[in-house]
Amino acid sequence: MKKKNLAALLMAGAMCFGLLAGCGNGNDNPPADNSQSGAQESQAAEDDTQSQAPAGEAGGTFTVGVIGPLTGGAAIYGTAVANAAQIAVDEINALGGDIQFKLISEDDTNDAETSVNAYNTLMDQGMQILLGTVTTTPALAVVPYAYEDRVFTLTPSGSGDDVIEDNDNVFQVCFTDSNQGTRSAQYMDENFEDLKIAVIYKNDDQYSQGIRDNFVAEAESRGMEIVYEGTFNDSTSTDFNNQLTGAQSAGANMIFLPIYYDPASIILTQANAMGYEPTFFGVDGMDGILSVKGFDTSLAEGVYLLTPFSADAQDEATQAFVAEYESRFGETPNQFAADAYDGIYIIYEAIQAAGVTADMSTEEICDALIAVMPTLSISGLTSAGSEMTWDENGAVSKDPAAVVIQDGVYVTP
Amino acid sequence: MEFLSYLINGISMGSIYAIIALGYTMVYGIAKMLNFAHGDVIMVGGYVAFYAMSFASSSFLGEEPSALAWGLSTLVCVILAMIVCTVLGVIIEGLAYRPLRQAGSLAVLITAIGVSYFLQNAAQLLFGANPVNFTPVVSGQLTLFGGQLRISYVALLTVVACIIIMVALTTFTSKSKMGKAMRACSEDRGAAQLMGINVNRTISMTFAIGSALAAVAGVLMCSYSPSLKPTTGSMPGIKAFTAAVFGGIGSIPGAFLGGILLGIIEAMAQAYISTQLSNSILFAVLIIVLLVKPSGLLGKYVPEKV
Fold it and tell me: Which value does ipTM take for this structure?
């Protein structure tokens, strides 16, 4: 009897789920459903070629997917991207134009495998354009699928060079790792004297390894002195006393940290406990360190980092965005938020330029957008007064600028 | 001097491993089970202390608390964390492990892994996934040899705490009545029961002590390495378990020795061989030790009687 009840309950549950799933699909736009099956898609594509006769008139509701770490150690990035993308989408939808967006997002916990699952979930929900993924390691796993499915992909912050390499459908809003590594070395060489550099990086993370490789190559070609290199990985990311002792005894006065803010916050605290006071130099992953709960922000004073966005910039667009973000989410947006906000507007501009409509197939949208991307020049929150343009490869022309943390805010030195 | 710094790093990290390993080894010695949730109890202890300390500093300590007020409130917070963890440990034992007392050891092992994941995910729901930064219970450093050698007070504190705990536990198990009951249970549970020892209560007591130690380890570990997130306890938990096996699981001095040695080997491997290979070297040493001495450094070899 008991077993029967259980079975009945399960059946009922399954049926309810089916109903819900049905509702979900019903609410979607017709093209959203098309991407679910190849046969339907090709048929729809045929229909579209007829209906879309007056080409150039962009319109319809586009389903944009966001994949990023909404939980886990890199959650600050994913939530920032999802939040800021929502703000941009709401702004565009409020304009009431022909182009409307529907935003769907999935968590990937900064894990490659989870990210692929998130991608599949979003595809099932009818994603047409991907704003993601937020971090590099998951991006490398997801991008081959997006390439095969012909989904136009714009990553707000997946900065790895390999993310865009050989994938014509993938474009970046942020600068690439090679760009960051090279620029960091260049900045140090030009602005500091008598440098003895130590590098502490995470060698099981493509992002960290990629920046480190480019940094070291540039530093060597400039004849800069790297006195110590220490690594860590996921399983040794809790204690850095040995790496710091190594750097200290090698006489390093500058520590380059091409890593995320979470281990960086441990490094700053442990260096302080040791009484070791070199200059710390981070890259875009350092962004977020000031918002770690319980972190003594005075430890971050004098830390340099590369970022294209500073929340206290005085231009109107930045001020409006920061005010909106703060009122909605109660925290100051970081550069990942700004990248995502720009990302949605880049997609918006690209759709207008290409004249695509939401009822076209994902592949048609993708090809049309790829064709227009190199022709666009867009100014945004992260373009630092100039305009962003893209090369054929998908890399953005944007110059990473160094800021230094003073009195708890980013200041251009 | 460099070597001394590395050695001190190793000993202080090793002390933390040792305190955690004591929890593993006591539970294994007495209940003959591997409590894989132990590492996550550490994380819970860290969170309780973190929130208690932020509550204390935001509600009544003010901007610049005196050293005494700060010290006292920190002590109260640590004791609070110990109480919460003790209760948690006893509840886990009562709900998840006691019903399986007669079941096979594999069933208990899987349950322990389940409890571990349960705690991690519950913590993620409760405290959020974003890492928080723990304020060290002590700050500053001791400067020796004209500034050539600096030892942080946190590192000293962990070593001192570890030695105190080690001595206290050894005295407790060898002298007190409860300690004797524990040793009796570990030797032969059935015979102990026949002699009138309440085995269930003894095992609960073991969990209580182990979990209180986990809270202390949590506070020390987070003071030493301040990032606290729901998965904070898992890797140190595994390393401490390794330390317990290394020293001879079931043996209290073994856990101490194993923990300290593990910390030193890790530090030396990172310092003089490679930061990339430190874990490989650590576990290679473990394998070699176990090949030569399967019961661990101080473990007793107990022959199976037929």
Answer: 0.81
